[in-house]
């Protein structure tokens, strides 16, 4: 029998400061990430001009509906005060309150399956970034190799798997979420900010769909991301600085590969003239 809950719950005794809210938004942004991975496989999608924006829109709406519904359920079952002071795992406690101990165990198994599905999805999508970079001459050439039998970027998949192992062995779950969430927010803000740059540099470029609310909606998003990144560096400096160090290490690598690509292009043009 399903247990009853309370829509109101106990009122919180203290108000959350702005810095605390910004800090809490880091794992929330991390939670909402993933649907954007459809862009990574755009090269392999039929009619990408139609299907990729459709996948992004449907993915966004689906994620919002699922997570808002789940949070409403958590508040209904536990209330705000109990939710804030929860000592154990959230899904286990909610499942036990609603359906009993047996159902809580089943929900735990479902959680493991869900995590496995997420890992599988990012194993499919993530290495396509390395593959595309290698094809553009901005990463190791080996990452552009395709397996002769499975037709997948096998080297890129192995590279991502090894980096994942390194991250898992070097930190706790909380540190990994903070580290990864910081990078997700930083690059999300940069990606949206690039919209202004592209509109200015290429005003006549074909654009198959409109950016709703431009320029105010993307501007608000970029400002929000900037505030979260700065706050994360102030409140959780060690983890944030580790993320900045890893990202910064890629800058000289980028220029190294970019210079090599320019040299190769120049050599190819000279050979073409001789021919």
Condensed summary:
With 275 residues, the protein is an all-alpha fold. The chain has 9 helices and no strands. Helix content is 73%, strand content 0%.
Multimeric organization: single chain
Encode the helix/strand succession as letters: HHHHHHHHH
Largest sheet: none
Count, helices: 9
What percent strand?
under 5%
Helix content: over 70%
What's the mean pLDDT score? 80
> Could you tell me the number of beta strands?
0
Instruction: Give the radius of gyration.
Output: 23 Å
Q: In terms of topology, how is this protein built?
A:
Layout: H1 18-32, H2 48-84, H3 90-99, H4 101-125, H5 127-135, H6 154-170, H7 173-201, H8 216-235, H9 237-274
Q: Can you put this structure into words, describing what you see?
A:
This protein is an all-alpha fold. The chain contains 9 helices and no strands. It has helices at residues 18-32, 48-84, 90-99, 101-125, 127-135, 154-170, 173-201, 216-235, 237-274.
Give structural attributes.
single chain; 275 residues; mainly alpha; 9 helices; 73% helix; globular
